[in-house]
Design brief:
- InterPro entries: Amphi-Trp_dom.
- This is Amphi-Trp domain-containing protein.
- Pfam families: Amphi-Trp.
- By secondary structure, the chain is of the alpha+beta class.
- The protein is built from three helices and four strands, in the order αββββαα.
- The protein has a domain of about 55 residues.
- The strands form two sheets. A two-stranded antiparallel sheet has the order 1-2.
- The longest helix is centred in the first third of the chain and has 17 residues.
- About 0% of the residues are buried.
């Protein structure tokens, strides 16, 4: 599931400034900002991958990827399912027809 994607052509200088901006965000509070108001918090430990590939005689690509696993979300008290004990203690009615 994609959260955000942006592609554009920039100068090498602008690319360096963007990478510095990302690095500063990671170093300060670990949040990367994107789009108009989006942000994602990066875990303290991440898996990193650097791929440099020759696409053709004249084109080279560099991909930097990092990923992490977010901790499982804890359910709030009002989201919990009723316990099986509560279901077992509910009285059941037996009709004469059901008993025979």
């Amino acid at each position: 599931m994609d959260i955000y994607e942006d592609s554009r052509t920039v100068s090498r200088s602008d690319l360096a400034a963007w990478l510095r901006q990302l690095a500063n965000q990671l170093e300060s509070d670990g949040r990367l900002f994107y789009g108009a108001a989006g942000a994602v918090t990066v875990a303290d430990t991440v898996r990193c991958e650097l791929e440099i590939e020759r696409e053709s005689e004249t084109e080279v690509s560099v991909e930097i990827e990092f990923s992490w696993t977010e901790p499982a979300r804890v359910k709030a008290a009002d989201e919990e399912e009723p316990s099986k004990d509560a279901e077992a203690t509910e009285p059941t009615e037996t009709t004469p027809e059901a008993a025979s």
